[in-house]
């Protein structure tokens, strides 16, 4: 019998170090015989990537932004995430709905109750269990002080509309993530992202080993040098 799919998301403020580790984790899962789908939000389908370009570059009010992000998310769920989970893949997704609560909710101050309604609308009715609202099986939260993230990003890449925000914005976003983690402690795994890359990788793989999703040997494989 094939193994059930796993839906794993990666969250944290810009510059926390998520992208540095996702490919390494995909390699570790593949080395242990699992099929892996790597994706990101906003994005992951042709339509959602178009919406991403708008969200990251065009000024808009917070409701418009939230509607576009959830539209992109539904398209991504329908066309990529749900089919991959149905095949039994491990789905590794760089950001998901916690980012909307953290950035649009806590960061921009948009109404969290409206976000909850949009979440239910966008994430329900797509899997064989009609009433299921799709949520991650695990969310890895790269927790890092905004000042440290800003230092890491300075000069590293051209900032998008969010990355160009002042540090106070990221303090609110970081608090938004802390609130989401406190509300669903069984789903979240917090990493101390201030440590060096190797230690962050060790923390990351030990979460998966503890869950029984990776064998212990991978701790020395696949991670960033
Ligand atoms: N543990 C770390 N210590 C120092 N710098 C890091 C660490 N992890 C990532 N970086 C660097 O910080 C920047 C942001 O990392 P990245 O993985 O792109 O973050 P994110 O995807 O969370 O925005 C990159 O320049 C990356 O090389
Ligand atoms: C998924 C998501 C992302 N975002 C923002 C956070 C990031 O600043 C930006 C893009 O995320 P990300 O892909 O992490 O950026 P990069 O590839 O440049 O590291 O979109 C939201 O504001 N709301 C959301 O729901």
Gist of the model:
With 225 residues, the chain is α/β, with parallel strands linked by helices. It has helices spanning 19-31, 46-57, 62-87, 97-107, 112-123, 146-153, 167-183, 197-210; strands at 6-11, 36-40, 90-94, 138-143, 188-192. Helices cover 50% and strands 12% of the residues.
Write the layout of secondary structure elements.
Blueprint: E1 6-11, H1 19-31, E2 36-40, H2 46-57, H3 62-87, E3 90-94, H4 97-107, H5 112-123, E4 138-143, H6 146-153, H7 167-183, E5 188-192, H8 197-210
Parallel strand pairs: 1-3, 1-4, 2-3, 4-5
Helix pairs in contact: 2-3, 3-5, 4-7
* Largest sheet: number of strands, sense, barrel closure: 5 strands, parallel
Taking Cα atoms only, what radius of gyration do you get, to the nearest Å?
17 Å
The secondary-structure element order is EHEHHEHHEHHEH
**Distance separating the two termini:** 36 Å
Mean pLDDT: 94
Spans of at least 5 consecutive residues whose pLDDT stays below 50 are none
Number of domains: 1
CATH class bucket: Alpha Beta
What's the CATH architecture name? 3-Layer(aba) Sandwich
Shape: globular
- The percent range for helix content is 40-55%
Count the beta strands: 5
CATH superfamily: P-loop containing nucleotide triphosphate hydrolases
| Adjacency order of strands in the biggest sheet | 2-3-1-4-5
What structural category do the secondary elements indicate?
Answer: alpha/beta
Bound molecules: adenosine-5'-diphosphate, thymidine-5'-diphosphate
CATH topology assignment: Rossmann fold
- Report strand %: 5-15%
